[in-house]
Design brief:
The chain is an alpha+beta fold. Helix content is 23%, strand content 27%. The chain has one domain: OB fold (Dihydrolipoamide Acetyltransferase, E2P) (Beta Barrel), CATH 2.40.50. The protein has helices spanning 53-69, 72-81, 96-103, 150-153, 208-215, 227-230, 239-245; strands at 11-15, 20-21, 25-36, 44-50, 117-123, 125-127, 133-135, 139-141, 160-172, 180-192. The relative contact order is 0.24.
């Protein structure tokens, strides 16, 4: 089930009402406690996700299943009602391969993580249902799905994580007849912590067997997640909020 369209808008966004855990990644550069203020008017929470070849293929499957297959029928219907041009069938959506080609970057030679990476994020500020500006935060869970104190944990590069996201599919005048996936960051599930400073609060560690299991090519992305991460009974934010968050 997806969110209702924003009327009289040149942008149509379909968002899953459930959150999902993405395939595990090695965490690179991140602004998850304090937002990146490179653009002071649009502070962003961001994280670089470094993926193995098997991980990249798992992300493509995730995009196809949760962004395209699940959301295209509703997006096409809303586009017709809004009299926006839309492709005739699901094959006209931006493919996961094209999405990843535009997102994936090669690591710099001096980087300690020599794996391709993609960045996902979300704006810190959003309009709530009363149209008032409100600040969001990023939530953190351990491997057993207990909430963590993100600031005390001092999560650093090299940590193995699962990003928790809202999958989306959007259409606008800018991308014409080319519906595109997007991912909005909600939280982080920490599977293996690398702290950047002394005195960090460490979560319960997942054992090596569990880490190997979730990093494998056959990993079930919905396996052993908290109710929130699995998306049960979690309503999506207002459509107006997400229109401001594109393209994440």
């Amino acid at each position: 089930m997806a969110t209702a369209p924003k009327k009289n808008s040149a942008v149509i966004v379909k968002r899953s009402r459930k959150t999902f855990a993405m395939p595990p990644a090695t965490m690179g550069f991140a602004s998850l406690i304090d937002p990146d203020t490179y653009d002071p008017d649009k502070p962003m929470f961001k994280v670089n996700l470094h993926y193995t070849p098997a991980g990249i293929e798992a992300v493509k499957q995730f995009l196809q299943e949760h962004c395209i297959d699940a959301l295209f029928p509703d997006l096409q219907k809303d586009a017709l009602e809004a009299k926006l041009p839309c492709v005739a069938d699901i094959s006209g959506c931006q493919s996961p391969e094209d999405f990843m080609e535009g997102k994936l970057k090669e690591p710099k030679e001096q980087s300690k993580i020599q794996l391709p990476f993609m960045q996902i994020g979300v704006k810190q500020m959003f309009k709530n249902k009363s149209q008032e500006q409100e600040a969001r935060t990023i939530a953190f869970w351990d491997a057993k799905n207990n909430l963590l104190d993100g600031k005390a944990m001092k999560i650093g590069m090299g940590s193995i994580i699962q990003p928790i996201v809202y999958p989306n599919l959007y259409l606008s005048k800018q991308n014409g007849k080319d519906p595109r996936p997007s991912l909005q960051l909600v939280g982080i599930r920490v599977l293996k912590l690398e702290s950047w400073g002394k005195g960090a609060a460490k979560p319960d560690a997942a054992d090596d067997e569990a880490i190997r299991e979730v990093m494998g090519a056959d990993f079930d992305m919905d396996d052993d997640l908290s109710a929130f991460a699995a998306g049960s009974a979690k309503a999506a934010p207002a459509a107006d909020e997400h229109d401001e968050d594109l393209p994440f």
